[in-house]
Design goal:
It is a multi-pass membrane protein. This protein has 14 helices and no strands. It is mainly α and about 350 residues long. α11 packs across α13.
Length: about 350
């Protein structure tokens, strides 16, 4: 009997790998057209982003932020929502973190200050996601439209707040004052000196814990079952007793809180102050990570590391190969989004045919 649907292992693993290889193949063609060797470029990228301990540390540092934005998009997707607003929610989450820091960083010890700042980032991120969730649940306003709008509003609002209120007197840099030492996330090179002088910090461990909690809550709890049921079929979920409007709002609140927590790694783990445009597109990369990782914890982790490696390895590669500008890696990220998002089922018919031939 012929199979009409791909097994879970094929859709969750085989298709993403084929899509990724397709994106890399097109990228290799572009690098060849730029006059450089794709194999040598790949070797340099892997060496600087994975094999070199200091480079790996930077890769994991970037991945720490991407894990949170990927989780933010994924939890909304599980409810059938496409939250494109993680960028703005991360931005506003950074403001919540900064408000706590500027208020309490000279009066609280680190063991109280850091959790309080993380709570501030989560609360502000959730608050920024609440209204799009409410409008979707109660008024039918599509969450894609509202979250896109809220990204622009967040950018303008943060520009006003930072320039108007947070710049210390007498300074021109559009940023808040530097936080006290108590507000710095402990760095992992304190325990693992081989990592070198890099900003990789405890946020990476918190991100791993968030992946585990996400996996347990989504696939091993009754609430997760209701969440997935809402995303798959709202009518059936409503018939089973799930409050659809409440689930949508709660999913968006959690999604916003996770996006807000993405600011912790960038602000408390690296710069130690709030600056303009610090998200630097991490919220949008989270969309690619959620799509490529198929909203699974392992997939989200691997996708985050991949994008972190592209940023770290791409920077070093552009230094060694002047013919390959850094913008090339933005193009590669776009290719990955194209193949893993818009064309995610490109190879599904061929894989299904191969499986049926093997069965026959």
């Amino acid at each position: 009997m012929k199979t009409t649907e791909l097994p879970r292992w094929a859709s969750a693993f085989v298709l993403p790998v084929l899509n990724l290889l397709s994106a890399l193949l097109v990228a290799a063609l572009v690098i060849h057209l730029l006059g450089e060797s794709p194999t040598e470029s790949l070797r340099i990228l892997i060496d600087s982003a994975v094999i070199n301990p200091e480079g790996l540390s930077y890769t994991l540092f970037y991945a720490s932020t991407f894990i949170f934005t990927g989780l933010s998009v994924s939890i909304a997707m599980k409810a059938g929502l496409f939250n494109i607003g993680s960028e703005g929610q991360m931005y506003v989450g950074g403001l919540g973190l900064t408000v706590v820091m500027l208020t309490l960083d000279h009066s609280l010890p680190a063991w109280l200050l850091i959790p309080a700042a993380m709570l501030g980032s989560a609360v502000f991120g959730a608050a920024w996601a609440w209204l799009p969730g409410y409008l979707q649940a109660k008024r039918g306003s599509h969450v894609v439209v509202t979250t896109i709008m809220f990204n622009f509003i967040a950018a303008s609002l943060m520009n006003f707040i930072i320039v108007k209120y947070l710049i210390p007197e007498g300074q021109q840099n559009p940023a808040s004052r530097v936080f006290s030492d108590a507000g710095a996330m402990p760095r992992l090179n304190e325990w693992f000196p081989v990592l070198g002088d890099t900003p990789l910090n405890v946020s990476f461990l918190i991100a791993i814990a968030a992946l585990v909690i996400y996996g347990v809550m989504v696939w091993r709890s009754s609430w997760g079952y209701q969440l997935r049921a809402t995303g798959l079929n709202q009518s059936a979920a409503h018939y089973a007793g799930v409050s659809i409007s409440r689930m949508i709002i709660v999913a968006m609140l959690i999604s916003g809180a996770l996006a807000g927590l993405a600011a912790v790694n960038s602000v408390m783990g690296s710069t130690h102050y709030l600056s303009l445009n610090f998200p630097a597109g991490a919220g949008f990369i989270g969309i690619a990570i959620a799509l490529m990782g198929r909203q699974h914890p392992v997939g989200i982790f691997l996708s985050s590391v991949l994008f972190g490696a592209l940023i770290q390895g791409g920077f070093d590669l552009s230094l060694e190969k002047p013919n390959i500008p850094q913008e090339t890696f933005i193009f590669i990220q776009g290719l990955i989004i194209l193949f893993c998002g818009a064309m995610e089922n490109l190879y599904a018919p061929a894989v299904l045919k191969l499986l049926n031939i093997r069965k026959g």
